[in-house]
Amino acid sequence: MRRKLAVLAVAVFSLLGLSVAPASAAGGDFAPPGCFGERYGILFGQGVSVSCFPGEGYGYRVIAHCSNGSAFWFVVGDFVPYGFGPAVAECSGALLVPARVYAYEVDEI
Q1: pTM (2 d.p.)
Q2: What is the DSSP letter of 97?
Q3: Terminus-to-terminus CA distance in the chain, angstroms?
Q4: What kind and span of H or E run contains 3?
Q5: Which of 14, 37, 81, 88 could staple 31 via S-S, CB 3.0–4.6 A?
Q6: Higher pLDDT residue, 109 or 42?
Q7: Pairwise CA distance, residues 90 & 95, whole Å
Q8: pLDDT tens digit sequence for 55-77
Q9: Chain-centre distance of CA 68, in angstroms?
Q10: Closest CA to 73 of 99, 98, 51, 97
Q11: What is the pLDDT of residue 16?
Q12: Residues 6 or more apart from 40 whose CB is under 8 A from it?
């Protein structure tokens, strides 16, 4: 019985280690020059809001790189013309596996 409990404990600790590893390797905390970004929490997830000063092109959008455990995906925000507010992208997860923004990038259009 002790052996089974020990194996179960090792399995749970290794599972928790796998789910924490991508969040601890987070990068991309800085917005590109001319822009400033802010991360914020949502229910079971995280979002990023980026505002940029006028640059080349007509506007911009933010692309969030999301993760929860071992899953990775992208969320593309809506197009925002310069001077009309921030571009927003939100990573949504679930109760036991909340999503995080581990990096983001700004795409000028």
Answers
A1: 0.69
A2: S
A3: 62
A4: helix 2-24
A5: 37
A6: 42
A7: 16
A8: 888 999 999 999 998 899 999 99
A9: 9
A10: 99
A11: 46
A12: 46, 47, 48, 49
- Its sign, for the CA torsion 80, 59, 36, 77, is positive
Reduced 3-state DSSP string for 27-62: CCCCCCCCEEEEEEEECCEEEEEEEECCCCCCEEEE
pLDDT score for 66:
96
Of 100, 69, 52, 98, nearest to 89 (Cα)? 100
Angle formed at CA 81 by CA 80 and CA 87, multiple of 5 degrees: 25
For residue 95, give the 3-state DSSP assignment: coil
Between 10 and 87, the higher pLDDT residue: 87
Tokens 């404990």 locate to: 9
CA distance 21 to 30: 21
Q: At 14, phi and psi to the nearest 5? A: -70, -35
DSSP letter assigned to residue 65: E
